[in-house]
Design a protein that fits this description.
alpha/beta; 38% helix; four-stranded mixed beta sheet; Peroxisomal Thiolase, Chain A, domain 1; 15 helices
């Protein structure tokens, strides 16, 4: 994984750096890869570069490996990971490189917002001026109305994110903030302020997926992490067409599928990476995944349950809010961070004690294309 932030490197250079690091980590330098899967949301509009799957494969010297681009909005990284797992599971590949990358800083923030708004319903939201931030604000207002969440309580989420991110050398933001910092920051879309919203970032993350046979041949069994379950589900494109403003049913369905495949329950998960592009989403994610009853997720922040040393650590490396959110890379960054936790290789202040099973949750669109992944120690 590269550092996330406003970076000088090109989108191809970022993908190259993360990919080569992953290949070296897998001891696959001298191997012939079967497939390269590239996750990226909007490279054509953010950078003017297209056909990225072939471009990256050629740049890495991996021709003639099959190359595919996967796009499901901000869940592209997790979807690409799912595709790689499926290729190996189907016997169509034994060694797959999956890389997620986005470079968002080459356009101004207004342009970036317009590009990202294209993942929403044009007829029902975008045409009326809707953006991801305004929809998050709408959901936050409804949640506060239904469950009595205070503006001060909501601020606890970015405070925790920045506290964790301050110890993550790859995070976009490494500055500790306070509740007052959040409350007094410029309003983006009421009630959300600047510190409730993730940044637009540059960056890349990559993983190597291997069949059991190849894993043994590479001699990496002691460092390998097994894919236990993957779940993927959608919801109606427009927020107004869904059954609830305070629950994302695609998360519920994707989690049910992933945990069912893994034959695990929520209680078996040791560490969590949840998609917190806006602070309110972390609460909703926890409730949709079954970590807390409806309206009570904030209790887990207050009592330290979701802290590094808590019983359900959430977003240990800072989440999207602090680590950053280069959209195509985020899902793979979440999985990469869980791998470091399971290996015991996370930065020391962020390492969860005896972490064996991790769950990542990646949102696509505005809550309408979700991927949940469960991985664990071999």
């Amino acid at each position: 994984m590269t550092r996330f932030g406003r970076l000088e490197e090109s989108i191809v250079e970022l993908a190259r750096w993360a990919s080569l690091e992953a290949i070296r980590d897998a001891h696959a330098d001298d191997e012939r890869l079967d497939r390269v899967i590239v996750a990226t949301q909007n490279p054509d509009e953010f950078t003017g570069r297209g056909h990225l799957s072939t471009l990256v494969t050629d740049d890495l010297g991996l021709v003639p490996a099959a190359a595919t681009r996967v796009e499901t909005g901000p869940s592209s990284g997790a979807s690409a990971f799912e595709a790689g797992v499926a290729f190996i599971g189907a016997g169509l590949a034994d060694l797959v490189l999956v890389v997620g990358v986005e470079k968002m800083s080459e356009v101004d923030r207004g342009t970036a917002s317009s590009i990202l708004a294209k993942m929403m319903s044009y007829e029902n939201e975008t045409v009326y001026g809707g953006t991801p931030a305004t929809l998050a604000a709408l959901i936050a207002r409804r949640y506060m109305h239904d469950y009595g969440l205070s503006r001060e309580d909501l601020a606890l989420i970015p405070v925790k994110a920045h506290q964790n991110g301050s110890h993550n050398p790859l995070a976009h933001f490494r500055k500790v903030i306070t509740v007052d910092s959040v409350l007094n920051a410029p309003v983006v879309a009421s009630p959300l302020t600047l510190f409730d919203c993730c940044p637009t970032s540059d960056g890349a993350a990559a993983v190597v997926l291997a069949s059991e046979e190849v894993m043994h041949r590479l001699g990496v069994r002691d460092r390998s992490v097994r894919v236990l379950g993957v779940g993927h589900a959608t919801d109606h494109m427009a927020v107004q067409h869904r059954l609830s403003l305070t629950s994302l049913s695609a998360t519920v369905n994707a989690a049910r599928a992933a945990l069912g495949m893994a034959r695990l329950s929520i209680k078996d998960i040791d560490v969590w990476e949840l998609h917190d592009a806006f602070s309110i989403l972390e609460l909703i994610d926890m409730e949709d995944l079954g970590l807390a009853p409806r309206g009570r997720a904030i209790d887990l922040l207050r009592d330290g349950t979701t802290s590094i040393d808590g019983t359900a650590p959430v977003n240990t490396t800072g989440g999207l809010k602090s680590r950053g959110h280069p959209t195509g890379a985020t899902g793979l960054a979440q999985i990469r961070d869980l791998v470091t936790q399971i290996r015991g290789e996370a930065p020391k202040p962020l390492q969860v004690c005896d972490a064996e099973i991790g769950l990542s949750h990646n949102i696509g669109g505005f809550g309408n294309n979700m991927v949940v992944t469960v991985i664990g120690r071999v």
